[in-house]
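Sorry to interrupt, but I need a hand with the structure work. Go ahead and set the record down below:
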Amino acid sequence: MAWYWWVLIPVAGFVLFYIVMAALAGSPAAKQRRRDELNAIFEPVRRDLAVREEEGAKALALVLELPVATSAGAGDVQSREKVSETVMNMARTRHVSLHVSLAPERVTFVQQIAGQPGKSMVRTVARRDAESWVVRTRMGRDFSAEVRAAQAGEEGEGR
């Protein structure tokens, strides 16, 4: 093989590599258009998450401001950090509707669960002492019946 082939092959490889990379990169306008299309796809999801975070923050403020209950009852005893995590996770859960009912010593959250018609999740939070809360969680049957029971201050169908 002659000496010029040793020069021509690497140069041709470099030129071919440069052409392929330039074709893959595309123009800046095309890149921006692709970015805008992706943002348009994910924008409703981002807005929904922002609304859920806002709902969670409002619900958490209600829970943290509860007075100490005279009888908090039985349930899962949680610290401030754990109850904050529980309430925020509840707000982030995919649900059709969320109803918050305030009683003098407790907050009841009734969620209509998405994709499961006729089912609801009921969480009742009461303050046990200065740094602990009692959280009771149960599955409810009918969302509207659970909302009526929460507004009346009762425990609902489950217990």
About this structure: The CA atoms of residues 64 and 80 lie 8 Å apart. The first strand starts at residue 76 and ends at 79. The chain has one domain: 28-152. The chain has a mean pLDDT of 84.
